[in-house]
Design brief:
eight-stranded parallel β-sheet, two-stranded antiparallel sheet, 342 residues, Arginase, Chain A, binds zinc ion, 35% helix, single chain, 10 helices, globular, alpha/beta
């Protein structure tokens, strides 16, 4: 097993934001990764620092104008004579019929909701989060001795809510989609199993009309829960991608048993697909104490989840995404890693 991260994981520091009628403290904070990185250390496992594979693998998935906005938007924001505040965020979302004249219009074009603001230093962490995932994909592409059969990426911010040209839900670059596309250089069929508490509408959007990347997601029902408008069973894909998008929404308040029942359905579908590589988007926000949880997975449950992923018996890349009970991320990740080791 190999584990990847990057030391520039803490320069993205979102500020409090307004949503659902009140100011919210940001949940996706640098301390999350500090805690996650304690887990491999406690287990005596090495963490590899990701190298730079450049911007091109990112542009294979995301629009050029969108990536350019993420990289340079903060500078443009600060250059406006009027003080617009310390982070790029407008509360306006007009993705279409928007010529993007001025940084406020660009923000309105590309930020789908208020939970993806960015400020000074954000791009550095966003970029290296994607590079951390790419490090694992690149190792697999160049693997000569089966040393990369199981790989785990520890980075922030997460990615599965980011669309081709939209940021939202703490996500900016869609790390899972970027590496699925990157792996297509060598592999014909990639399966993504998303077990984060929330539906990954970004991954769904990116591969909705394709059958070379199967997307399956287990998540809380989107009815009155983020992302609210996607994640239903009837969203199955389109064109030649019809049938290759599988959503398994859980009722809110689901037990651990119900969670695993949905995970089993997802894994069964992936086995039928017989992919070359499995990408597991792992969210610790399904944990019973997590503020975002609408189900009740225990610490021990993450060990079982890892064993289930390993039992698929394909090359596996795990991307750790959601999870906001900061003081439990260490033991929950230890539990998951133990499941991969046994
Ligand atoms: Zn989540």
């Amino acid at each position: 097993m190999k584990i990847y991260s990057h030391r520039d994981n803490n320069t993205h520091q979102p500020l409090p934001y307004f949503s659902y009628g009140q100011m919210r403290e940001p949940l996706e904070i640098p301390q999350r990764l500090e805690e996650l990185l304690k887990a491999p250390k406690a287990l005596g496992l090495d963490v590899i620092n990701a190298k730079d594979l450049g911007i091109n693998p990112i542009l294979e998935v995301h629009d050029y104008g969108y990536v350019e906005f993420l990289k340079n938007g903060y500078e443009e924001w600060k250059a406006v004579e009027e003080d617009l505040g310390a982070q790029v965020q407008t509360g306006i979302y007009v993705p279409d019929n928007n010529p993007g004249l001025g940084i406020m219009a660009k923000a309105a074009k590309y930020q789908a909701d208020d939970s993806a603001p960015f400020g000074e230093g954000s791009w550095n962490t966003i970029y290296w989060s994607a590079q951390t995932a790419l490090a694992a994909a690149d190792a697999l592409l160049n693997d000569k001795s089966n040393q990369s059969a199981i790989q785990v990426c520890l980075s922030r911010p997460p990615g599965h809510h980011a669309g081709k040209k939209s940021a939202g839900g703490f996500c900016y670059l869609n790390n899972g989609a970027i590496i699925a596309q990157y792996l297509r250089q060598k592999y014909a069929k990639i399966a993504i199993i998303d077990t984060d508490m929330h539906h990954g509408q970004g991954v769904q959007e990116i591969f909705y009309d394709r059958k070379d990347v199967l997307y399956t997601s287990v998540h809380g029902s989107p009815i009155n829960f983020y992302p609210a408008v996607t994640g239903h069973e009837f969203e199955k894909g389109e064109g030649e991608g019809y049938g290759f998008n599988l959503n398994f929404p859980m009722p809110h308040g689901a037990s651990e048993e119900t969670f695993f029942k949905h995970v089993d359905q997802s894994i069964d579908a992936v086995k039928l697909y017989n992919p070359d590589v499995v990408i597991h988007i792992l969210g610790f926000d399904v944990f019973e104490e997590d503020p975002e949880a609408r189900c009740a997975v225990s610490t021990k449950g993450f060990e079982v989840l890892a064993q289930n992923m390993k039992a698929i018996d394909k090359s596996l890349i795990v991307l750790v995404e959601g999870g906001y009970t900061v003081d439990k991320l260490n033991i929950n990740l230890q539990s998951f890693l133990k499941g991969l080791m046994t």
